[in-house]
């Protein structure tokens, strides 16, 4: 459906991006790593259209073209089946780039879960054991 189309929403001089690839799991879809909005396309985010030019079709031609070809910008992922694995590419990226915990208790629980997953990786041969890993296990 159109809810799953990654397009700019345009209102006079304001352009806001509809970015469904950032919340696919909420709709029962497999979560992919979201694409970044190109720097050139951030220029009109939150602009106030009351001043300056009123020639929006010319000024926003790039965004209008994307909107007119919106069927080319559908985010297509399969339905999510079961839980995401600990090493799902999205979760690996999320752990590297996001603030994961809001409370000390949440951080403690997360650190425990991460430690268990790390030990599991070491014991199943997913990662090679080094001196640091052996110390971690002890």
Automatic annotation (TrEMBL):
<feature type="domain" description="Aminotransferase-like plant mobile">
    <location>
        <begin position="3"/>
        <end position="94"/>
    </location>
</feature>
<protein>
    <recommendedName>
        <fullName>Aminotransferase-like plant mobile domain-containing protein</fullName>
    </recommendedName>
</protein>
<dbReference type="GO" id="GO:0010073">
    <property type="term" value="P:meristem maintenance"/>
</dbReference>
<dbReference type="InterPro" id="IPR044824">
    <property type="entry name" value="MAIN-like"/>
</dbReference>
<dbReference type="InterPro" id="IPR019557">
    <property type="entry name" value="AminoTfrase-like_pln_mobile"/>
</dbReference>
<dbReference type="Pfam" id="PF10536">
    <property type="entry name" value="PMD"/>
</dbReference>
């Amino acid at each position: 459906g159109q809810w799953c189309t990654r397009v700019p929403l345009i209102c006079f001089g304001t352009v806001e991006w509809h970015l469904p690839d950032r919340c696919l799991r909420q709709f029962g879809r497999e979560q992919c790593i979201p694409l970044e909005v190109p720097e050139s396309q951030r220029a009109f985010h939150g602009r106030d259209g009351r001043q300056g030019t009123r020639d929006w079709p010319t000024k926003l031609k790039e965004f209008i073209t994307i909107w007119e070809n919106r069927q080319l910008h559908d985010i297509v992922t399969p339905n999510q089946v079961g839980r995401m694995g600990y090493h799902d590419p999205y979760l690996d990226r999320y752990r590297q780039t996001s603030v994961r915990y809001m409370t000390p208790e949440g951080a403690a629980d997360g650190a425990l879960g991460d430690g268990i997953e790390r030990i599991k990786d070491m014991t199943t041969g997913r990662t090679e054991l080094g001196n640091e890993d052996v110390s971690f296990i002890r």
